[in-house]
Amino acid sequence: MSTKSFFVPPPPLKTKLGRHRQLSPLAGVHVSPICLGAMSIGDQWANIGMGQMDKDDSFKLLDAFYDAGGNFIDTANNYQDETSEQFIGEWMERRQNRDQMVIATKYSTNFKRAADLPQKTSYVGNNIKSLHVSVEQSLKKLRTDYIDILYVHWWDWTCGVEEVMNGLHHLVAQGKVLYLGISDTPAWIVSRANMYARLTGKTPFVIYQGAWSILQRDFEREIIPMARVEGMALAPWNVLGAGKIRTDAEEERRRQTGEKGRTLINKNWERTPEERKVCQVLEKIAAETGATSITALALAYVMQKTPYVFPIVGGRKVEHLMDNIGALDIALTPEQIAELEAVQPFAKGFPHEMVGDGLTYSPFHSMGLNLDKWPHQQAIRPTK
């Protein structure tokens, strides 16, 4: 490509997935607003109820995401018994696009679960030995010399934050890892780890990953306020409620065909009466907003609750991926968000319901005073 101007214009957008955003206040890297979850990419988990994709279908999904403007992919050392990382690595090598992509992977889970080895102790946990072994293997499988984002997959309660942060920082200093993330961990541990990093000149966590959806709103209690204060991004998984965010018609179709989804983590695949009510309101608001589906609306909901949210969307079908990208065209009003949340109210409990969450002044603060509070940063909202 040649140009007569120094200021080269951007290529035409195929979808809004190509409008990339800064990851977080602590991380200047820019990523697509939706992250492709790669738990189903790979061919080893069909027999345990988690679904799988052969290499050809995996490459088709990766190509569709990349062609639509996506550059943010989430995997883990153990997904599909290591074939997820292997397929992604081979795909990037064939497409010659490694440096265009932002690849997040994880350590902590036993990635040699199915291997024929007499001892597997070194392949699990948050400890430095597990970290070293896992990262060296992930680099080989991904066919790269660096990992963009490395997550602690879950907190194992055997290591102090000092061991974890020292080990992670060493990888950053070596250039093997660029950014650090943490998943499925109590908020107080994340804050303690980041405080240790700040006080000792180590690398802090810049992104948190965990379960969050309109059906499961625990994030609002501690995780979202923690991320706001720490300057961290949020990468929610399970945004579609383990497949339970569906219309009545879709549920009946599944009942007729026997399609149940990931049965390992979703044995009771049918919705509860409360979940069905939430989905019915999603349908109503989808009609009001012109949303292509209620799943796209569910994605828009988490993306517009707070800034720096990058929902992880998995699945195995290109048409579902393209439908979910439609979330980037949906603008929800505060009234519509309130209507959704009123169906299944979430109680934050003590002390949050007593002192508030910092978005407004607490009742104690405002006694006898006339105050205007500066608003927090808002999420990016679609424009017409």
From TrEMBL:
Pfam families for the chain: Aldo_ket_red
Gene3D superfamilies, per database record: NADP-dependent oxidoreductase domain
Organism: Postia placenta MAD-698-R-SB12
UniProt keyword annotations, A-Z: Oxidoreductase
Entry-linked SUPFAM superfamilies: NAD(P)-linked oxidoreductase (SSF51430)
Official protein name in the record: NADP-dependent oxidoreductase domain-containing protein
Family according to the record: Belongs to the aldo/keto reductase family. Aldo/keto reductase 2 subfamily.
Signal peptide: none
Gene Ontology MF term list: oxidoreductase activity
Record has Glycoprotein as a keyword: no
Domain NADP-dependent oxidoreductase: 33-343
